[in-house]
Design goal:
It comes from Melospiza melodia. The chain is an all-alpha fold. It contains 17 helices and no strands. The chain folds into two domains: about 1-65 and about 110-175; about 195-295.
Length: about 300
């Protein structure tokens, strides 16, 4: 577990170690099957996998882009592909929504397991069944890492979490735990998921009222809570920017007074949350059909 946080070279060596990732996944599967999701070894295994999934899209060899997660459309040869799972060019980003998702291997080995739907479901199971905060945080954090990029792999993981594995109820429950780091990581994961336009209505329907409910009445007084508040505001921004319906959901959940209260705090220490709230307010005002409702 300590070695897995030793930086890019350490992660690379551990990902390449034959049988290591398979063994970690095997152990966690056994713990879940034996109804033992709270033992310390399971926590260690999940924390290692969390660390090994960090910057995964950027750090994998280019060969994985060609052999496993290859976009299925005819993309111009002029488009460069600096990332392992897809290009960062605007042209491909515009096509990305129409690109079929990559095909999974039925029997993943080693590093291939890190983004496979089997492990995604394991993380969601641990989030739901474990009562260990570190295990919950590491499971959420691994999913946050896997959904952080812009290529086909993060897109595929996000769709698996939301649509195939029905993961939103488990993530939503983590918004209401008392442990600040677990809550912060759950919100960060939702922020990543909410960047995907095809998932925004599902996310808004399932968790938007919960996100509003955990917004403070003003800027919170500690750094972790301040960062969590900023992430909530940016998640709500993603969900409401292109949807008047979702903006109305925020309104009906009594979110507007909270967002206004957070936005007017001008203390430098908490400017991150205030700035995020201000960006959200500006975006909400662009829905001109809601102006009369806002004024009321």
């Amino acid at each position: 577990r300590n070695m897995s946080s030793a930086g890019p070279e350490g992660r690379k060596k551990m990902r390449e170690c034959e049988g290591l990732i398979d063994s970690l996944v095997y152990y966690i599967q056994g713990a879940i099957a034996d109804h033992e999701p709270n033992d310390k070894a399971t926590e260690n295994c999940v924390c290692i996998l969390h660390n090994l999934s960090y910057q995964l899209e950027l750090e994998l060899p280019e060969s994985y882009a060609q052999s496993i997660y290859v976009q299925r459309r005819n993309i111009s040869n002029n488009d460069k592909t600096p990332g392992c799972f897809g290009t960062r060019s605007r042209k491909v980003k515009e096509k990305q929504q129409d690109t079929p998702l990559p095909e999974e291997k039925s029997n993943p080995k080693g590093v291939e397991s890190l983004w496979h739907s089997t492990l995604i479901r394991i993380y969601l199971s641990l989030i739901a069944k474990s009562t260990r905060n570190y295990t919950q945080e590491a499971s959420l954090g691994a999913l946050q890492n896997l959904t952080a990029g812009t290529g086909p792999m993060p897109l595929a993981v996000a769709r698996t979490v939301v649509q195939k594995a029905n993961g939103l109820p488990s993530i939503r429950a983590m918004l209401h735990v008392s442990h600040p780091a677990v809550k912060k990581t759950a919100v960060s994961l939702l922020r990543n998921l909410s960047r995907n336009p095809s998932l925004q209505n599902d996310i808004a329907r399932e968790v938007l009222p919960d996100l509003v409910s955990i917004l403070p009445e003003g800027v919170p007084g500690c750094e972790v809570a301040c960062e969590t508040t900023a992430s909530i505001c940016y998640t709500l921004f993603n969900l409401t920017q292109g949807s008047s319906h979702n903006a109305r959901l925020l309104l009906s959940a009594h979110g507007l007074p909270k967002v206004i209260a957070i936005s007017i705090n001008d203390s430098n220490m908490f400017s991150k949350a205030s700035r995020a709230a201000s960006v959200l307010l500006y975006s909400l005002w662009l829905h001109t059909d809601l102006h009369s409702a806002y004024k009321k």
